[in-house]
Design goal:
alpha+beta, Beta-lactamase, 8-stranded antiparallel sheet, 3-stranded antiparallel sheet
């Protein structure tokens, strides 16, 4: 009942809020920051970035040689998770089940680890969600994988793959059927490169921005649930599980998306779902503004190890570049320093 009330309240707020238009200086400062060779954004090149409001795009720019564009599809990797979470909320009309959906969308279930990126059963052309799960000994039912006490956050794709199979009836789905399912509920164009619902989506940055606007307006039910049911997701706030986030930051994980640490300013905190290859979508904590930093560094992802610090990975660099762009946008001042929060 509580989750349902949150959705209704946010729908009202989203329909009545008024957001001031950004100044030209805000756009200029963000553009200068993104194009700078004196900050972390240099390491993200080539990339496309876009900022806007629930009403639409305010600015979108490609940076670097052979940079992505708003309309060119790319692998979004773990940004797929936010899309799947939104799909679940749409199917269930925002009424998520406390013991069926929440533990799996917040990654505190005890589902066996799934090496979706390496398993041929997850990647081959005629694979199914269920076949992918079997490759990781995820046999179901979900009741076998409920959280232990104390609950522990573990970042791995098995949570969502198990949920898709045993809670959402997608076990027999191939990549084409996953595409139809998500496109039909989210009203965006996307494709799946594998049946890994946590990391297999390929999508144009402009389409992902459209998805973010749906969350902001409340037309997508997950918009009213952003940040709810969140759990500690780094050692900095007490979690001792497996987390890819910056170790020193007390980040939390909500329903298939991150809740970033909030230091107070408008550009701090918010909701996101960074992807392995350098795709970083973000919504501000007041739902007034969105950002997409879109890069696709295949080689960088291949060479990184589990022990590689996040700020040395394509994903971490995209987050840090995005933070500078956000700060420049909100303050109207170009940024050249090393961002944290």
């Amino acid at each position: 009942m509580r989750i349902r009330i949150v959705v209704l309240l946010w729908s009202v707020l989203a329909s009545t809020s008024v957001v001031a238009a950004p100044s030209s200086r805000s756009v200029e400062a963000a553009t200068e920051t993104a194009a700078s060779t004196q900050n972390i954004c240099r390491e993200v090149r080539p990339f496309y970035w876009e900022m806007g409001t629930a009403e639409g795009k305010v600015v979108g720019v490609s940076v670097g040689l052979l940079a992505p564009t708003a309309t060119r599809p790319m692998n979004v990797a773990s940004a797929s998770k936010w899309l799947y979470g939104a799909y679940v909320a749409q199917v269930l009309d925002g009424q998520l089940r406390v013991d069926v959906d929440v533990p799996f969308l917040t990654f505190i279930s005890t589902t066996p680890r799934l090496a979706a990126g390496r398993s041929s059963e997850c990647r081959k052309g005629r694979s199914t969600v269920h076949g992918c799960n079997l490759s990781g000994d995820i046999l179901g039912p979900l009741g076998l994988y409920l959280p232990r006490s104390p609950k522990q956050f573990v970042y791995q794709p098995g949570h969502l793959e198990a949920h898709a199979d045993y809670a959402m009836g997608l076990g027999a789905a191939t990549v084409r059927e996953l595409e139809e399912a998500l496109e039909g509920r989210l009203h965006v164009d996307l494709s799946f490169t594998s049946v890994n619902v946590a990391g297999g989506v390929r999508m144009a940055p402009g389409e992902y921005a459209k998805f973010l606007r749906g969350l902001m307006t409340g037309s997508l039910k997950l918009g009213g649930l952003l940040g709810t049911s969140s759990v500690c997701a780094t050692a900095a706030c007490g979690n001792t599980g497996d987390s890819p986030w910056f170790l020193e930051e007390p980040a939390h994980y909500s329903l298939a998306h991150w809740v970033e640490p909030d230091e107070g300013p408008e550009w701090s905190g918010g909701f996101s779902s960074a992807g392995l290859l350098g795709f970083y979508p973000w919504i501000s904590k007041d739902r007034s503004t969105y950002l997409v930093v879109a890069s696709e560094h295949l080689l960088g992802a291949v060479t990184q190890r589990v022990s590689t610090p996040l700020d040395e990975t394509p994903s971490g660099r995209a987050v840090l570049c995005g933070r500078l762009i956000k700060k420049a946008y909100f303050t109207g001042q170009p940024q050249s320093g090393a961002p944290r929060k």
